[in-house]
């Protein structure tokens, strides 16, 4: 066995480069199975973040077509396979729907909007007669946002006469899951309106079709102001399945249209669904024989098979620790996207009878040597007032290096976005990029995170900027108190809502020596005015309604507290971000510059909310590592230096990425 080299934490040589992380940002999503064919979406960072559709390994969409819908700005499933083998997809540049026959040029199905991206479409299903696409339509005409469920003819007639698009349902602010009954006599859907978010309260509505094709007698059969109902699926013409969280956990129910009381299929203190950020995914799928493939658990999700005849739920014996809430099934085959701490997110096909699984595509073709991958330790850390805080702890991990005796490692607290989202245990090469160099990571599922029941996620109600900050600080302090982390070398970082928590934390606490905000919210009042419609009243539940809570917004604002920023800060921002616009970062930069607090600000052209391009991922990650080297006192290897600014200067240009680091010649265990 080769002896390990001794080097300070943070300076260990690593075979995991920022370019490797960028390649691992290949995003797989929304698998669909029909017969023996499986489709999925694939977002490719090395192709400028373009999303294509793949069928059983074959790329169906040539460049420059980009299958990405902007409904709610977060999008979702952007395609629908048709029975004849054609494909319908939403094209990113103009947001029109197109029909693609293999080997041919896509043909438009929707009219060209009067304004760029003025009409958008998502959550597609085929009408019972096979002649229309039923979906959510989002209109941005003259700045006003309106949504409806519409029927779009597959003939392409709407390109000649927009009136060929027939409106089926309207009146609410938001729609999801348009779902026709088996014989086409009814339509089920989910709707909600401002100021609720879909995890706050939604309504499952059902209506019958008249002979004219219009819907009559729409009524709510599940959900309400404080109940989130999601993902309806028809069992037959008079009953359907739905997920609801009315008892405090998203569980699966059967509802009869002629029966008053919904029946819980498997009541448990587990989640069988998650927050509806993206449209078009379903957390369960009904097999041909009536059994139901379900995802369930606390935090991470397991794949199980529920038998309605016996009311038994049996989990598959598979190596995956978590699944995305996107299942599809046909016959006895289930497809989904799964991963584990040593397995990247992968499109997986599972035989429901044998339990055998086959990987169809992985986000990372050649993962690093497992010896460099940290194994997360799931922990319940103690937060303020004795409340539990869920987290994954990743220790520094490198088989070829060790730290000098007595040295404690720096630790970075990762804060996820949302904030109604959660961290998972699945392999994240971004975490390994740091841990393989000798920095520990703690990924915090602070109060407000999903996966642990409604009461846990509602800890953040009107407490955003308080509970998330307290739990972030508590997670770091627990590692210090346990003798795991160096108290003088702690950093905190997050993106979007995680960037908000990062900025709140470094302006309220002196515990951290560095803070990194990826497109984080700096001033909540101005963000309410600047952001997109989907989240335009989100903060009413997280902080309070406006007018009425202006004082609270001011008290919570990192921008208002910027003069008290306790450490240097790195801000990274996409110039084309419609969700958290550049002025959010720029105002914070101006505020810390006025107080001579060291900072660096990198803005990237062509990037939106969440960096999608390989060169951006590389530049931002190397800048972040260099930033920690300066602020936490170590010498990172083979990354460009970053200049911290004191006082106001022009925005820095992202540095050129460094060459990939060579792997050690003889990795040792």
From TrEMBL:
Domain Peptidase S9 prolyl oligopeptidase catalytic: 428-633
InterPro entries in the cross-refs: 6-blade_b-propeller_TolB-like, AB_hydrolase_fold, Peptidase_S9_cat, Xaa-Pro_dipeptidyl-ppase/CocE
Stretch list, region Disordered: 645-669
UniProt biased composition (Pro residues): 652-669
Protein name: S9 family peptidase
């Amino acid at each position: 066995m080769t002896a390990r080299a001794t080097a300070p934490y943070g300076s260990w040589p690593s075979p995991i480069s920022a370019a490797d992380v960028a390649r691992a940002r290949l995003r797989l999503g929304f698998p669909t199975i029909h017969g023996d064919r499986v489709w999925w979406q694939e977002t490719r960072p090395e192709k400028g973040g373009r999303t294509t559709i793949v069928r059983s390994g074959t790329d169906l969409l040539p460049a420059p077509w980009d299958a990405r819908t902007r409904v709610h700005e977060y999008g979702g499933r952007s395609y629908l396979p048709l029975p004849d083998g054609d494909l319908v997809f939403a094209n990113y540049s103009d947001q029109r729907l197109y029909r693609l026959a293999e080997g041919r040029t896509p043909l438009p199905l929707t009219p060209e909007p009067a304004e760029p991206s003025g009409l958008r479409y998502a959550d597609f299903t085929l009408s019972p007669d096979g002649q229309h696409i039923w979906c959510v339509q989002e209109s941005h005409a003259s700045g006003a946002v309106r949504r409806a469920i519409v029927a779009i003819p597959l003939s392409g007639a709407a390109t000649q006469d927009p009136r060929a698009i027939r409106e089926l349902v309207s009146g609410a602010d938001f729609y999801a899951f348009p779902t026709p009954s088996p014989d086409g006599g009814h339509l089920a859907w989910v709707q909600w309106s401002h100021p609720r978010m879909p995890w706050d309260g939604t309504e499952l509505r059902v209506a019958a079709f008249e002979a004219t094709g219009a819907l009559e007698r729409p009524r709510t059969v599940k959900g309400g102001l404080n109940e989130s109902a999601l993902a309806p699926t028809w069992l037959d013409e008079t009953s359907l399945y739905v997920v609801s969280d009315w008892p405090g956990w998203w569980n699966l129910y059967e509802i009869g249209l002629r029966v008053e009381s919904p029946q819980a299929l498997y009541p448990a203190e587990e989640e069988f669904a998650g927050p509806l950020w993206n449209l078009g995914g379903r957390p369960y799928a009904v097999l041909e024989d009536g059994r139901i493939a379900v995802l369930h658990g606390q935090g991470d999700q397991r794949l199980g098979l529920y038998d309605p005849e016996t009311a038994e739920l049996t989990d598959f014996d598979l190596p995956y620790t978590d699944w995305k809430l996107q299942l599809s099934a046909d016959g006895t085959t289930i497809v989904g996207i799964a991963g584990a701490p040593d397995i990247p997110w992968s499109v997986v096909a599972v035989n429901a009878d044998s339990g055998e699984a086959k990987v169809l595509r992985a986000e990372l073709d050649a993962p690093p040597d497992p010896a460099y991958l940290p194994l997360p330790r799931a922990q319940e850390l103690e937060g303020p007032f004795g409340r539990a805080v869920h987290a994954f702890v990743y220790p520094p991990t490198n088989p070829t290096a060790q730290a000098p005796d007595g040295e404690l490692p720096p630790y970075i607290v990762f804060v996820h976005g949302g904030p109604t989202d959660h961290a998972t245990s699945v392999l994240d090469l971004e975490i390994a990029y740091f841990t393989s160099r000798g920095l520990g990571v703690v990924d915090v599922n602070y109060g407000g995170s999903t996966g642990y029941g409604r009461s846990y996620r509602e800890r953040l109600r009107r407490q955003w900027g308080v509970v998330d900050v307290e739990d972030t600080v508590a997670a770091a302090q627990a590692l210090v108190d346990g003798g795991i982390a160096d108290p003088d070398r702690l950093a905190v970082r997050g993106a979007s809502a995680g960037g908000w928590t990062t900025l709140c934390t470094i302006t309220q606490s002196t515990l951290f020596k560095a803070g990194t905000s990826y497109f984080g919210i700096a001033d909540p009042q101005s963000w309410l005015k600047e952001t997109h419609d989907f989240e335009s009243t989100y903060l009413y539940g997280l902080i309070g309604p406006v007018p009425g809570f202006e004082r609270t917004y001011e008290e919570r604002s990192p921008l208002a507290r910027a003069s008290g920023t306790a450490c240097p800060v790195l801000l990274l921002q996409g110039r084309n971000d419609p969700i958290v616009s550049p002025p959010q970062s720029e105002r914070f930069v101006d505020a810390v510059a006025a107080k001579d607090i060291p900072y660096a600000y990198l803005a990237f052209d062509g990037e939106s909310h969440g960096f999608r391009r390989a060169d951006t991922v590389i530049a931002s990650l190397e800048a972040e590592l260099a930033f920690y080297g300066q602020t936490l006192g170590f010498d990172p290897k083979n990354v460009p230096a970053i200049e911290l600014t004191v006082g106001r200067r022009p925005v820095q240009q992202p540095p050129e990425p460094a060459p990939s680091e060579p792997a050690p010649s003889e990795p040792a265990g």
